[in-house]
Amino acid sequence: MKDENKIDRKIKILVHADSPRVSTGFGRIAQGIFNYLAKTGKYEIDIFGVNDLGFLDPDPEKYPYRILPAMIPGIQGDFYGRIRFINIIRGADRNFFTPPWDIIFTLNDPFIFEEPVLTPEIGMMDALKDLQALYKKDLAPEAHFKTVSYWPVDSSLKENWITHAIGLPDYSVAYTNYGKAEIEKTNNKMEKPMKLNLDVIYHGTDVKSFFPISDEEKREFKKKFFRKAKIDTDRTYIVGMVARNQMRKDIPRAMKIFKEFQKRRPDSMLYIHAKENDVWGSLGEYARNLNLELGKDWIFPGNFNENVGYPTDALNKIYNVMDVQLHTTQGEGWGNC
């Protein structure tokens, strides 16, 4: 006898995350999760893609799902498209994605989804929770959905990040045990702790995109990539750091560590894969305070855009030419490879 509760169709997922077509950390994570799920043949996936400019032709082999850019080209507004996302779930934007979905999945910082954007008190996760309750009350089961959120944790959390973001999904997942512990620590300090359905799932490793290259390829890439540096690319020891220029990554401390290392290995250079002037200030100013000369002692990529990043094949070569990688962090750190 057929099980009436068994789903005999593909499970539909709507995702709010960085587009898998962009070379950001969140984009790498999204691609890793949803490429795998799509290849099982069990899911139909729609991705509301942050940072996607919309001019890249979709490749069904590389991106086996539909992608809608979060921002409409040429229109100023919310960079993350949070109101538009809620309207899509409500069925008010049927020209692109049409409800219903079985699962609504989100991936971003809790303060992005906690921020009030619909009203002075209501953020995206609040609205999503309200919609979920309304659909359960007034609509047929076919319109009901579960919510799943994957949360990065870089530091101690604020209570409103729990009450208006992390504590609202049916399933909240942290990247690491550190992240889970920080979430629980903040929740337990609250006057009314929330009941959290919290788990940990580590990132995987994409061995198809990140792998060793030959010594000859390393030499050629070093010469081209560091052509403006005042170093002997065949001899200089490369200390590399791939990290956003934000407080949580503590790049000034990495520079200080490198300065001490350089006393023992003078023929070395620090490569920082980040924007020179970002939310944590000017890397050039930090370097000057430590008497690190640009192009000789340290270097960074020119015209770097943290929202776009580098193509995966280029990043793989960058990792390969590092003799050692250096990571400093004031909270959770993770190499998205």
Fold and architecture overview:
- It is globular and about 70 Å long.
- α6 links the parallel β6 (171-174) and β7.
- The strands form three sheets. It has a seven-stranded parallel β-sheet with strand order 3-2-1-4-5-6-7.
- The protein has helices at 25-39, 82-90, 110-114, 124-138, 159-166, 177-189, 215-225, 251-264, 283-289, 312-321, and strands at residues 11-18, 43-50, 66-69, 103-107, 146-151, 171-174, 198-200, 237-242, 268-273, 277-278, 281-282, 298-299, 324-325.
- The chain has ten helices and 13 strands.
- α2 packs parallel to α4 and α7 crosses α10 (312-321).
- The chain has 337 residues and is of the alpha/beta class.
Pick out its properties.
single chain; 337 residues; alpha/beta; 7-stranded parallel beta sheet; 32% helix
Task: Write a short abstract of this structure.
This protein is of the alpha/beta class.
Number of helices, counting only DSSP H or I runs of 4 residues or more: 10
Major sheet attributes: 7 strands, parallel
Q: Round the Cα radius of gyration to an integer and report it.
A: 22 Å
Structural class, please?
alpha/beta
Question: Strand share of the residues?
Answer: 15-25%
Encode the helix/strand succession as letters. Answer: EHEEHEHHEHEHEHEHEEEHEHE
Question: Separation of termini?
Answer: 46 Å
Number of strands: 13
Low-confidence stretches: none
* Mean of pLDDT: 90
